[in-house]
DNA sequence: GTCCATATCTGTAGCGTTTACAGGTATGGA
DNA sequence: TCCATACCTGTAAACGCTACAGATATGGAC
């Protein structure tokens, strides 16, 4: 039978930093695990799976709050899938919005660079365009959140 | 002749929050402006242009540090343009990297949703895929910074 | 049992970029 | 003169960690 894992072993098993694991516990994403007599944490297979779930969702850009919701839903296998679906769908929208912004941004910067010769600052298009939003193609570019 | 602007008027003129303006001053992005007898800030046209420059660069996703460099360069019209060019070029690369990550991400989430019927959590693909990274198309997706 | 290197513990502070508040003061018009 | 509004400073929150300091536990070699 497999021994329970120390926090370091859990970190290795999941690729999540030790500090981050403790942080997840503090904010309630991970349940406080049992401790040894010396108050060191010991994790079982359930904790490993849960942390992997969290890490994957984080990698996919889900917010901690969204993950909290997903975990709560995952805990009830009989419940409808629509909640999880909605969270993922909202996240998808958000990602698509960010992509659109970044693409506009990329075009803007590329255009700026296209016009930049090897001259002096005095005729540098980068500086000039930054100084005057009116020269932008896109009226409303905002950096993503 | 135009009066100097209060911080509120400057905020309106540039679309930058009052709190943000004071923050920019604190971190040295904006010069401390002259004050009235009652110690309220008064901004002239130069400050307005500088803040517009900053806002535009921020909208384009440049970091505050990069903007600091750009401002320093803009202050010397005789200098070579290559520094500003390099900053913009590096930023372009970064934006393109982020786009690529987000696109991979979008595909992953979309694929997850494609497989999600209207069933229960027990057979919810969203939850399931999150729980098992092995089911991902992309081995190495990370959320952008 | 003893020693020691390593791992882990708690608590706090920092990152970057704002935003929000609390509690006090200045300004400008009626 | 009065008062609503705008402004002031300083501090803390937000996000999701990361990094430290200083103390304690663990597990293996002797």
Automatic annotation (TrEMBL), chains A, B:
Classification via InterPro entries? DNA-bd_dom_put_sf, MerR-type_HTH_dom, MerR_fam
Q: Which Gene3D superfamilies match?
A: 1.10.1660.10
One Pfam family this sequence matches = MerR_1
Record's keyword annotation contains Metal-binding: no
Q: Which domain of life is it from?
A: Bacteria
Citing just one GO molecular function, the answer is: DNA binding
Keywords, sorted A to Z = DNA-binding
| CDD domains reported in the protein's UniProt record | HTH_CadR-PbrR-like
Q: Which residues form the HTH merR-type domain?
A: 4-73
SMART domains reported for this sequence: HTH_MERR (SM00422)
* PANTHER family according to UniProt: HTH-TYPE TRANSCRIPTIONAL REGULATOR ZNTR, REDOX-CYCLING DRUG-SENSING TRANSCRIPTIONAL ACTIVATOR SOXR
User: What is this protein called in UniProt?
Assistant: DNA-binding transcriptional regulator, MerR family
Q: Which organism is the protein's source? A: Chelatococcus sambhunathii
């Amino acid at each position: 039978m497999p021994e329970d894992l120390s926090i370091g072993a859990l970190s290795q098993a999941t690729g999540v930093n030790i500090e981050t694991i403790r942080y997840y516990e503090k904010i309630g994403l991970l349940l406080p695990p049992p401790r040894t007599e010396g108050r060191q944490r010991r994790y079982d297979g359930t904790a490993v799976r849960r942390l992997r779930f969290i890490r994957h969702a984080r990698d996919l850009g889900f917010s901690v709050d969204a993950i909290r919701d997903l975990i709560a839903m995952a805990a009830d296998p009989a419940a409808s899938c629509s909640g999880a679906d909605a969270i993922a769908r909202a996240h998808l929208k958000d990602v698509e919005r960010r992509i659109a912004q970044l693409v506009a941004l990329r075009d803007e910067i590329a255009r700026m660079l296209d016009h930049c010769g090897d001259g002096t600052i005095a005729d540098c298009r980068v500086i000039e365009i930054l100084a005057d939003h009116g020269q932008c193609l896109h009226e409303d570019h905002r950096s993503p959140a």
